[in-house]
Every structure is written in structure tokens, then in C-alpha cells.
Amino acid sequence: MQPRLTAPNKTLSFSKARRQTSNSVSPISPEIRSPSFDLSDPLSTRFAQQTTLTSTVSNPAVAIKPSLSSTPSSLLRKQSDPSNLFTAAQTAALRTLCSNIALDLHDSSFWSSLLLQHKYPVTHTPQDAYDVEMATVGLAIDLAANNLRTCNFNKLCLYLLSLLRELKSHPQTIPVQTYNALFLFRVFSNHFAGNLTNDEMMDQFEGF
């Protein structure tokens, strides 16, 4: 017999109801699952997938950005083209750094063109950081693919260490060259940490 509860002017009766399973999903609260990446995918594919995910999560405005057709052309930016943020000389030097050409650590003319001529952009806001990330994705893919043979990223790290040693004698100011070397180290390290496996990271940093 089903239990009955009585109340003034009202009789309530329990009836059997279907229980929702514990893994049911509310139609207004969609289940959020963390995406998974197949480590056997090509490096460039994983970079592109992770960059899209990171940009959407870290910058919610990207997820609700209007379509390109409704955006004024003056506001559009080729996200993968570094020349939109860097000077022509910086862009050329960056492409050389990330290419399959092994650089000479003692080639002062190259390091000057990469680090000394102009200061790289300062990232004050999340949008600034997003713009830099999008402008350097292609460069980071090339650098990761070529660095095991050229060790150019490792040479950048060593050059940065030498600049930091010199900084001890002038601690009040940070020279443009030192700032630029720190900037590039941070940018490429960020891409590597977000897209490479632990073993691939070790290969990049221990290559020289």
C-alpha cells in the first residue's frame, strides 16, 4: 500500500516516479568535457588545436566575437602573420631564428638585428597577450620542428643568460636587448609548455 499524507483540505499521495540517472545532462546546463589530444598527431595540428582552445578559454571575448563578415575591415588582423605586430627587420630575424638554418651564437650582427634595433610590444592587457600569441604561433611551430637540429632556441637562451650577467652592473635599467631576449624566451616557452609533451619539452631545452 502506498503511504498517504494528509493536510488540511488536501490529500497528497506518493507515486512512483522515474529517477533520472546520475549521468543525465540538463538541457540548459550542457556537460563540459575537457578536450583530449592524440599525442601521435602532427606537432602543427596539436599547436593549432591547443591555441584555439587556449584563446577561447583565456579570452572569453573571442568566443562571442562577431563573424568576420560583420567586423569592420579596419579591426581585422591576420592572426598568424607576425608582421602585424613586429617591424620588418624583427620579422625577418624571427623567421631566420625559427628556420632550419643553424645560427652562430657569436654572430653579433644577427643578434643585434633580432634584439637591439626595436623594442618588442609590451603586453599590458589580455588582448595584447592574445595578439602576440596569435602572431607567433607559426613561428613557434617552425622553431619546435627545427630546433632539435639547429639548437637556435637554446642559443637564444644562452645569449639571454649572458645579457642577464651584464645586467648585474646596471641593475636600475633593463636594456632593450635584454628586454627583447626575455620577451622572446617567454613567448616561445609559453607555446612549448602549452603544446608539447614533457619529453618533447626536455628535447627542446636540452638540445645544445
In short:
This protein is mostly helical. The chain has helices at residues 43-58, 60-63, 88-97, 108-115, 126-150, 152-167, 176-195, 198-205, and strands at 4-7, 10-13.
Description:
By secondary structure, the chain is mainly alpha-helical. The protein has one domain (41-61, 81-205). Helix content is 51%, strand content 4%. Strands 1-2 form a two-stranded antiparallel sheet.
Spatial strand sequence of the major β-sheet? 1-2
Helix and strand run: EEHHHHHHHH
Oligomer: single chain
The parts where pLDDT drops under 50 for at least 5 residues are 5-40, 51-79
Write down the overall geometry: globular
Largest sheet: 2 strands, antiparallel
Total DSSP E strands: 2
Q: What is Rg? A: 26 Å
**What is the helix tally?**
8
Strand content: under 5%
Quick check: average pLDDT? 73
Report the structural category.
mainly alpha
Question: What is the number of domains?
Answer: 1
Helix percent reads 40-55%
Distance between the termini: 81 Å
Outline the fold blueprint.
Elements: E1 4-7, E2 10-13, H1 43-58, H2 60-63, H3 88-97, H4 108-115, H5 126-150, H6 152-167, H7 176-195, H8 198-205
Antiparallel strand pairs: 1-2
Helix pairs in contact: 1-5, 3-4, 5-7, 6-7
Features:
208 residues; mainly alpha; two-stranded antiparallel sheet; 8 helices; globular
